Amino acid sequence: MNAANYLYVSALLFTIGAIGVVVRRNAIVVFMCVELMLNAANLAFVTFARINGNLEGQVVAFFTMVVAACEVVVGLAIIVTIYRSRRSASVDDASLLKR
Amino acid sequence: MSIFTAPVLNYSLLAPILIVLAGAVLGVMIEAFASKAIRPVAQLSLTLGTLILAIAQVWRIRHQSSLTAAMGSVAIDGAAILMQGAVLVIAILGVLLIADQEQFTVLAAAVPGSEEERESLESGQKLTEVYPLTLFAVAGMLVFPVSNDLISLFVALEMLSLPLYLMAGLSRRRRLLSQEAALKYFLLGAFSSAFFLFGAAYLYGYSGSVSLAGIRDSVVGGSGNDVFFLIGIAFLSIGLLFKVGAVPFHAWTPDVYQGAPTPVTAFMAAATKVAAFGAMLRIFYTAFANAYWDWRPLMTVIAIITMLFGSFVAIAQRDIKRMLAYSSIAHAGFLLAGVIALNKAGLDASIFYLFAYGIATVGAFAIVTLVRDSTGEVTDLKRWAGLGKRSPFAASLFATFLLAFAGIPLTSGFIGKFSIFSAAYESGNKAIVVVGVLSSAIAAYFYIRVIVLMFFTDPADDGTSVVIPSMLTRITVIAAFIITIFLGVFPAPLLNFITSLAYFIR
Amino acid sequence: MNSTGNPYVPILVIGAIGFGFAAFSLVAAAITGPKRYNRAKADPYECGIEPSPQAAEGGRFPVKYFLTAMLFIIFDIEIVFLYPWAVTFDKLGVFGLVEMSIFIATVFVAYAYVWRRGGLEWD
């Protein structure tokens, strides 16, 4: 199978994630879309590792997975805290800073 | 099966980073096992001791420069040593501010206004987690500008960002605002790091190597798919431009600067800029240098928009922290001019500018922490009127930092701006010099306006006053003041030191 | 192991054994087990907690679930680094052992912090 197809999937996933971040209003959904983007990048890395015939891309994918997990933890902590203070996880409600 | 040998790490060259990380881990241990009473003192002394030890290590390895460590993942060259030194000096001043625990909530997880929060505040305890968080962020900032491959770049980017997201949400007063700043910073930061990673993937696809040297070889050799290269460079730049707060990726800056506790803002504004521009300089000066025709025009446009936008919007601000945030956006534009210059003078000037700007920023925010009324900090610009008559000393120091931002002679800012613009002129980029000088003039207008407000307006009787600073805050302010003036009057020693050291290994 | 055959044959064999074991367990349980039904057994199984149409607090899960999930993710994902080390263990030698010990020690520091600060207490 042509490796370029995986690049198309990866670009598609990345775009879906990016659109999701822009149009969705729930902080947790926005955050899940960011994770989708990270995984799209991971897929691209692994595909390029296959195309280039070396392992560096797969190593990057490992590191990305760990970093993404840490990001989940920090992100959920922040989102849960803000949800407990406001009873809402909508990014539109968080608008005190717009002057 | 390929031949596999154990890697060589060169611990001696990595010492500053490893010391800071060890300090951070020890800090977590103190949080876990020390009693609440001794934690604040133990954490503060551990943090300061760690940073000073790390500076000593940076000083020790300054002449062993132009080496790579950890199998080429980390480049310890002259520029790396200068940037690590700058980050550490700024971090020490920042930690002295963070030690003023009045600014931080005690129980970050408590719901604002709840019984739980009131109890925690009345117990008189201190929030000490902020020290290990700071150290982790500093470790990330030490790795980011010295990273020599895409993996370390990404890991360092996250390592410096994640603690800062949390630290932005720790303010004691106006909790909701602070939490909101943390949320915005986090969501936008994660968004931009996804772009960074996607760009990194395409650069890897282009060159078949994750090291900056490998990417450079592909650029020089002209091999590989140019579409991959352009996608990679664009997405990677988005991630970097976000971190430095350049227009149009600046949206988080004013909100986070305003919502975060002021000591954290001081540390973050100064140290993140050094680290992010350090990494940016390395990437653009080494990996992308030979493809400058691909990125220079667009980066020039971004630099020009950033300078003008930051300067114009800052005029309209009514809040001192927001004003400083927009001024930091304008400064990001000036620094981009140094990146675009792409010559030795540009590199020297950028490093000098980063150091001078970082110190002045810490000093300015330190003064902001001191102007308070009975409920906490006063950041409304109107209520700063007449501050110079009430507390001439603090107001004069603040005025000095503002003049340094504006680039008035006899301050460090003048030398920084002058050397950046002359480097840009030398590279033949006249448009950026013209816009730069123009927006400096616009920026000078609102800095001077604040000074006029402080010294030539009658104070309103609304309880705004400058509190007596703690010993540590006093040290920060005085040190920042001395460095700002010294670099303005005698810039030669530091400039020569930078010129002799600032090289990237290729 | 047969070195000349298709390298995927062992995987097929393992798959067949796994499938066979699962099928055998189900069939054996159905044939040999006693069949006494009551209401509790007919309920859907949800980790030992009373299943309810909606979680408490209007359909939201309590925060402690998030805390547990976060802790799980953090400690779970670190395994990623242990696999490559396990594969090249003999070639990395003492260097690998020392480095991985330091790595595991730092994870334990995080664990100690969570434990001392009450992150592992359910209530």
Automatic annotation (TrEMBL), chain A:
Name of protein: Unannotated protein
Family statement drawn from the similarity comment of this UniProt entry: Belongs to the complex I subunit 4L family.
GO molecular function: oxidoreductase activity, acting on NAD(P)H
GO biological process: ATP synthesis coupled electron transport
PANTHER family linked: NADH DEHYDROGENASE SUBUNIT 4L-RELATED, NADH-UBIQUINONE OXIDOREDUCTASE SUBUNIT ND4L
Compartments (UniProt record): Membrane
HAMAP family: NDH1_NuoK
UniProt entry tagged with the keyword Transmembrane: yes
Any single GO CC term annotated in Swiss-Prot or TrEMBL for this entry: NADH dehydrogenase complex
Bilayer topology term: Multi-pass membrane protein
Main location: membrane
TM regions (residue ranges): 6-23, 28-48, 60-83
Keywords linked to the UniProt accession: Membrane, NAD, Translocase, Transmembrane, Transmembrane helix, Transport
Keyword Translocase found: yes
Native source species: freshwater metagenome
InterPro entries the UniProt entry points to: NADH_UbQ_OxRdtase_chain4L/K, NUOK/Mnh_C1-like
TrEMBL record, chain B:
Chain segments annotated as transmembrane: 12-34, 41-59, 79-99, 182-207, 227-252, 264-285, 297-316, 323-345, 351-371, 392-411, 431-456, 477-505
One Pfam family per UniProt: Proton_antipo_M
GO biological-process terms attached to the record: ATP synthesis coupled electron transport
Main location: membrane
Gene Ontology cellular-component terms listed: membrane
Subcellular location: Membrane
Keywords assigned: Membrane, Transmembrane, Transmembrane helix
Occurrences of domain NADH:quinone oxidoreductase/Mrp antiporter transmembrane (ranges): 147-442
Membrane topology field: Multi-pass membrane protein
Keyword S-adenosyl-L-methionine: no
GO molecular function: NADH dehydrogenase (ubiquinone) activity
Name the UniProt record assigns to this protein: Unannotated protein
UniProt source species: freshwater metagenome
From TrEMBL, chain C:
Keywords, sorted A to Z: Cell membrane, Membrane, NAD, Quinone, Translocase, Transmembrane, Transmembrane helix, Transport
Listed GO MF terms: NADH dehydrogenase (ubiquinone) activity; oxidoreductase activity, acting on NAD(P)H; quinone binding
Gene Ontology CC terms, in alphabetical order: NADH dehydrogenase complex
Protein's cellular compartments: Membrane
Membrane topology: Multi-pass membrane protein
Pfam families in alphabetical order: Oxidored_q4
Signal peptide segment: none
Residues spanning the membrane: 12-31, 65-86, 92-114
Listed PANTHER family: NADH-QUINONE OXIDOREDUCTASE SUBUNIT A (PTHR11058:SF22), NADH-UBIQUINONE OXIDOREDUCTASE CHAIN 3 (PTHR11058)
Family, similarity comment: Belongs to the complex I subunit 3 family.
Name recorded for this polypeptide: Unannotated protein
Natural source organism: freshwater metagenome
